[in-house]
Structure formats: C-alpha cells, structure tokens
Amino acid sequence: MSSKNNNIDISENLKRSSERTIILNVGGIKYETYASTLTEYPDTLLGTIFQDKNRAMLHPQTGNIYFFDRNGYAFRYIMEFYRTGKLLLSERDKDKVTFVTLDEIEKEIEYFRIPVTEGSDNDEYDDDDLMLDSQSNDKKKKNHNNPAPASVLIHKYAGAKVDQFINALEELIYEAMGCFEERIELKFFSNTSDVEAYWKEIEPALKFYYIMKPYGVIGYCILDKFSKEIQLYFESTMQSISFQSTQVIDELTPTGNYGNYYKISINIKDRYDKEDIIIHTRLANYRVS
User: Fold this and answer.
1) What distance in Å separates the CA atoms of residue 99 and residue 259, rounded to the nearest whole number?
2) Within 13 A of 181's CA, how many CA atoms are on the CB side?
3) Strand ordering across the sheet containing 29-34
4) Which superfamily does 18-112 belong to?
5) pLDDT value at position 142?
6) Could you tell me the end-to-end alpha-carbon distance of the chain, in angstroms, rounded to an integer?
7) Across all residues in the chain, what is the average pLDDT?
8) CA 167, CA 46: separation in Å to the nearest integer?
9) Cα angle at 233 between 229 and 239, to 5 degrees?
C-alpha cells in the first residue's frame, strides 16, 4: 500500500475517532464497527437500517448492541465486505475450528443484500477474493443497479477451487514421476479432526504429498461431487497413469471413530526404463553400454 493510501486511512480513522461504535450481535458472536462503515453501502440491509433517517426504528438489545438471529460465523465474511468492499473467502480458517460452507455464506449474502456483481473475464482478482462489488467507483455506479445473483459468484468461486484441486493433483503426479514413484495413494476425510490426525500420522514419511495438504475437507467435498469427472479427466489427459477414486463409508478413521472418506489411488504405468529416460538428460551423449 502506498504512503498516500496510508495517509488516507489514518485520516479516516482520526475522523471516526469521535464516532460512537455499534455492536452487532449475530447469532451470539459480536462484531464492533461504526454505523458509517455500514451506511457506506446504503442498498444493503444493514446500510439501510443504520441510516440516520431510520434510527428511530432501531431497537437495540442494550445500549449500542443490536441482535440478529443469523449465522455468526458466516457473518465475518459479510463484515469484511463492509470494511474492504470485497468478499474474502477462504476454505477454512486455520486458527478456528469452525468450518463455514459456501452455501452458508451464500445465504448470508442474500439475507444481508450484499450487492455482489459478476466480473468480466478480464477482471483481475486473486484466488482468495470473490471480489466483487466493483473495483472502481465507475464500475460501482455501472453495476449498482444490476447485482448478479450471489449464487453465480459462489459457483464461480467453487469452480475455481475445483480447478485448483485438479492442478494440485497434476503437480503431485509430476513430482511422483520425477521421483520414480510407481504408486500414489491419498485419503480425503469429511471431518476436520480426521484430516488433521491423518496428516499428523503420515506427513513425516511423505516426500511430496504435502502438495495436497491444503485440500483437507474441501478435497472430500470436491470428490463427493466430481470424482467420476476427475477420474475421466485424468484418464483422458494422462494416459501413462491409471486413476481411481473410491468412497469408503463408515470405516475406522485416524481419530478412532467411524466415518467416511475418499481414497485416491494413482498407478504410474511407465516403469522408468533407463533408455527412455536418458535421452531427456544431459547424459544422452555419455551412455555406457
């Protein structure tokens, strides 16, 4: 961030230092903010409620605390929208035990009337931003009256995660080939505690499997929906391997409980013949018979 932007942020904070904060109690989880942060987006539910002209209609629990009977964990994404203008989605917060699904976030987006807008193919955004509302004031004005359904953006984000998962599997296969491996086997559990126990158990013995570690529960969700399509993709694009995805139901898991998981088994058909390999190395002209 430039010094100019830093100065703007500091100036904005000083301006607000005299403004009274409000506390949003969402499903028992409290978020503290300024009313002006919410009214910056007047067409949203909270932006409408906390406008000065509607103050007489507000009914706080006590003092400056306002209760909303909604999903308090998913609301943190809504709150970040008000603060940054973006929906910053992550598959799981490593510091929290609570996993929030994309469906839960979508419901809160729709309830709080967050005006997400569908970007064009040329829009730039990073993998952790669902981005949207607009990237500039001009775009805000252009899209302000035509918000895309939240589900469109959620589905785009979910699709991007599926592609990232496939890319990681491809990288894993290439790493295995580079290490002369003949077989890869991985498990993806539906339960966070099983995921953590599984990696704790096998990680010390792994070489390059760490590539798939970020895809814990999300890997299970992806395979649960797309395992057949993923298998067909790999068998069509990488004919030197066989790819199998199997769902295992109600089996003993690493935590000692019974649960479900997916097992991926990848067999590399090529047996790494010396002559086939050496022609692709610097040793091609130095063969010893």
Assistant:
1) 17
2) 19
3) 29-34, 21-26, 65-68
4) Potassium Channel Kv1.1; Chain A (3.30.710.10)
5) 43
6) 61
7) 79
8) 39
9) 140
Name the E strands within the chain. 21-26, 29-34, 65-68, 183-189, 241-252, 258-268
pLDDT, tens digit, 9 for 90 and up, residues 29-53: 999 999 999 999 998 999 999 988 8
Contacts of 74 (CB under 8 A, 6+ apart): 100, 104, 105, 107, 108
Say which residues have a Cβ less than 8 Å from residue 87's Cβ, sequence separation at least 6: 77, 80, 81, 105, 109, 114, 116, 129, 130, 131, 132, 153
Q: Give the Cα separation of 232 and 126 in Å (integer).
A: 29
Cα–Cα distance, 134 to 268 (Å, whole number): 46
pLDDT of residue 57: 76
Per-residue DSSP letter, 285:
G
For the question of whether the overall pTM of this predicted structure is more than 0.85, the answer is no
Provide the β-strand partners of residue 266.
184, 243
SS3 183: strand
Amino acid at 12: E
Average pLDDT for residues 156-160, to the nearest whole number? 81
- Measure CA 275 to chain center: 44
Could you state, in order of their start, the residue ranges of all structural domains in the chain?
18-112, 150-275
DSSP class per residue in 184-197: EEEEEESSHHHHHH
